[in-house]
## 1
Amino acid sequence: MRKISLLFVVACLLTVVVALSGCSGEKQAPPAAQQAQSVELNISAAVSLKDALAEIQKNYQAKNPNVKLVYNLGASGSLQKQIEQGAPADIFISAAPKQMNELEAKNLMNKATRKNLVENKLVVVVSKDSKLNITKYEDLNQDAVQKLALGETAVVPAGQYAQQVLQKLGLWDKVKDRVVFAKDVRTVLAYTETGNVEAGIVYKTDAISSDKVKVAAVAPEGSHEPIVYPVAIATNSKQQKAAEAFVEYLFSAESKAVFEKNGFVMGK
């Protein structure tokens, strides 16, 4: 009887151990799964990339459900200041080299990861039903153009490029009193769509995104610095591998098709 009792006790103990190990395994699985699901990439990007990045986000997350892409879209200069002040950013995509250069100089962006992503063109837009006769930038000097919208030249690259063109063509001093400044290029587009201004200067890609405006003129070659969008990974990113994988995807054939559909040209 004693032997039988001892065997019974041992059997019971083994059963408990197996059950506990099974429970232990079940408890360990969720944290691993949660960890896979918790990869979050904060991406600060020029607002002119809004439509293209929205489609790319959908495509990427469908293939990588464990990665959550969080966009912070705005004027590149404003985004630069936010990053300098400690705003979370694993990746930065600027609408001009200037903002990226300044972040690199402060060791906030990893220079080794920097690449030129896409290029753009600068255009004059008017509302779809506008009767204004504008075919070149010089036509902005006519009296009928009472308000001209530009991005804030201090922080909006599109505004900086626009000012370069107007200065190059000898128009800046003639039109500057009629300029209405906007916080970013999409606001310039909105002002033009609603007729709050007679004309606005935006990127070609912004014009393509709207069915409420039409392109009246394209900036002459050499009238402004090349419109290049550099991308880089933040030096202090805690998701370096995930950031590298997403940046690589931005240069994939699938992303290239999205950028080109939205009017961009891939960077050289």
Note: Residues 2-37 form the longest helix (36 residues).
## 2
Amino acid sequence: MSRFGKSIPLSTASQPAVVARWGTAFRAGELLLLGYFTYVAVLAMAEHRALGYRLAATGMPLLVSALAVAETRHGQKWSSFLRDWVPLPLVLIAYWQVNWFDSAPLVARQLQWVAWDRVILHQFGLHAAVESLGPVIPAVLEFCYLMLYVIPFMCLAALHLTGRRQRVDRFYQILLGGTLLAYALLPHFPSLPPRLAFPAENMPLYAGIFRKINLWVLDHLDIATSVFPSGHVAVAFSSAFGLRRALPERPGLSRAAFAAALLVFVATVYGRYHYAADGLASMAIVACVWGLHEMLEVHA
């Protein structure tokens, strides 16, 4: 039963799908990816990006469509199972595409954001609280920030392991809806992370192994376009809300996901990877996406 008392079918025979006129069943998560990649392609054309970017951007929605067509028409049991997992690496590609739209940061906005951070870190005592036990809490926060990359995989695995594979697309509707909406906004708010924009202010006292790994990943694999809204926080909270929606009978799992998401948010602010405004914006975006789906379910 769902939290509103509606039955959720337990059959694992198929995923919810939207059937196109040519007979191909698209899962809702695939339609979200298709919409996002189409948006990037239009943006690349409108901003007259290099030909290579425009071709790559145009190719992504075609690739998503082709995969759905091929698996629907010729798929086997193993390919249907693999299809459950394909959207996760595509989310990473979606994030990297944002780097195609790099532009000059808006300094005035960053000055306002860092002013709010001073209040949170010092007047509200977040900085002192995190460092009250020496390197212990900072290490936990950095570890949670690093583990962000596996949280969606763990949530999806939870659905498979609990025998609720038929609800995978319910999970993706929130994960991809919240995450891709946050990504879509990034090119419109160019900004630098506080660790680069304000390198001498509010930096963490402790730098353990997990922070060193996080910094290496960010320096070599992260985008340079923007930090608003926070992609990390969007993924973390989208995963938690998605798991809550897809697996309501296991509240302990979603509570653990929410706890991890909150720690990721705190880590972004304390570690100066993001301004607090970045994470709060992502949390609001994801909450709106989740609320919209809940409202539509009530009136369905």
Note: The chain has one domain: 17-298.
## 3
Amino acid sequence: MDNTLQLKAYAKINLGLDVVRRREDGYHEVRMVMQTIKLYDKLTFRLLEEDEIRLKTNLGFLPVNEDNLVYKAVKLLKDTYDVKKGLEIDLFKCIPVAAGMAGGSTDCAAALVGATKMFGLDLSKQELMELGVKLGADVPYCVLRGTALSEGIGEILTPLPPMPDCYILIAKPPISVSTKFVYENLKANELERHPDIDGMVDAIKKGSLPGITDRMENVLETVTIPAYPVIEEIKNCMKENGAINSLMSGSGPTVFGIFDTEEQAEKARDVIRKNALAQQVYVVKPFNQSI
């Protein structure tokens, strides 16, 4: 068995995000269309004979202990399957942190996949998804990847055909948005309109990009945009510069726009940077290949 392994942990966007209701237990029931994109962190794994977990990262403010989902994922596998060997993991982050792009969850999913391989465990994707839900609602999707309908609290996943080819502009403004703040201030049972998630799923099945972009909607914007107007500014800037449509991803603050051509997406990227709306700006494509 090779003693080192490198994996890419891909980010996600929400093409559509609806909150159906707030449950009695405080959790929110959602219906979301998730899409993996070609923006990724890199994880390098090295097998250790010692029974320990060592985590390093390129961002000094990130924890490298039990407070990190990568560490938790490896520990969960070791505890569940009584693994006595250890791992050293080098996490190189490129996905914006606390940005509504599942950066922590995708690193966690990659850690589950990588540690399983390094420890020689014979686990199916389904088994990894079931382990992942113990660590976070987005983790099973990040194991699955591609295009999917997410329901329940995010743990009920239905794979969908790949979304049509396009260019996606990602822009994360220099602010942090607390997911807890967004959901606590969302009046889920009083929402006047809901995204057409069924129509979007149908459009994906038909391979219709206009059918998808016409239905891009995120109910969490009702909380986040009034609190952080720069999100609306970035959306408008993308649309004024060629985006078919633009939307906030997850609970924000990252905004994405869908473009027909790379040239248009790059032009909009340059305008956003010039206007100092965001510094973390990337032109990417959809990712539809499984791990």
Note: The CA atoms of residues 54 and 88 lie 5 Å apart.
